[in-house]
Amino acid sequence: MKDCLFCKIIAGEIPSAKVYEDENVYAFRDINPMAPTHVLVVPKTHVASLADIGGVSDTVLAACLRACGAIAEQEGLKGGFRVASNCGPDACQSVQHLHFHVLGGKKLTEVMG
Asked: Which CATH superfamily does the domain covering 5-104 fall into?
C-alpha cells in the first residue's frame, strides 16, 4: 500500500532496526518500546488488521506467529513474553497494517489495557 508506514519500512524506504525476516514476515524494533524487548512483527502482505484477514493466506498468518516465537528465542526471553495485536481505534491501533507486538525482557504486569 502506497502510504502505509509499515509497507515503506518493509520496502526499505524508511530505516528500521531489523530483527527478523523471511519470505512472509518482517520484524523490527519498536521506536517507542514498552518493554526492554519490544519487536513488531508484520506480514509483508498489506492487510489493515486482524479484522481484515479474509484475503490473507493461512501460511502468512502462521508465519507471523512462528516469527514471534523465533524472535522470543533469539532475544533470550526465557522467562516468558507477550504477543499482542491492536485492532481498530478502540484498541489504539496506530498503524493500519496488521502487526504483532512481541514484548518481554522483564516481568510484565497482568493489566492488558
From this structure: HIT-like (3.30.428.10)
Of 111, 15, 6, nearest in space to 64 by CA:
6
Q: In Å, what is the CA distance from 113 to each residue of 84, 91, 109?
A: 11, 9, 10
**pLDDT for res 97:** 97
Residue matched to cell numbers 502510504: 3
Active site annotation includes 99: yes
User: Do 19 and 28 form a contact (C-beta atoms < 8 A)?
Assistant: yes
Q: What is the pLDDT of residues 43-81, one digit of tens each?
A: 999 999 999 999 899 999 999 999 999 999 999 999 999
CA distance 16 to 41: 12
- From the candidates 38, 46, 97, 99, give the one annotated as an active-site residue: 99
- HSE (CB half, 13 Å, CA atoms) of 5? 12
- Could you state, in order of their start, the residue ranges of all structural domains in the chain? 5-104
